[in-house]
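Page 47, continued from p. 46.
Same chain as before, 145 aa.
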Amino acid sequence: MEAKQVVVDGKDKVLGRFASQVAKMLLNGESVAVTNAEHLFISGHQRDIVASYKHKLDLKDKANPEHSPYYSRRADMFVKRIIRGMLPYKMPKGKAAFKRLKVYIGTPDELKGAKVHSIETKHRRQVFEGTIYIKDLVEKLGYVR
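Result:
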């Protein structure tokens, strides 16, 4: 059984709502490619969001720091980790679903002509509080191109 390839554009979408819908597609057996991962955004005050993720990066196991959780600072890997958190990753169906996920910064050449599936979330201007794009967040966390 071959999984159906679905291309989803992340430009100007709320990250949490977007990621939960992508996770549901993966659990339904579809293969998902997310493009423009750096243009997703998180709603909330920028100062609080950056402080929260900086705190996560500082968490280390005192006895064995190598066994601490790893959070990437690259935009595509950052989004992939968030989608993984919405899957039952430690179960076989969650691992199989996660293997069907591809996340890209920008749009790669092989996906330029593909039909893009639309996921509806609020637009950035409809969000009551402030927002921060993933590309800005990962730069504040220390990502250098």
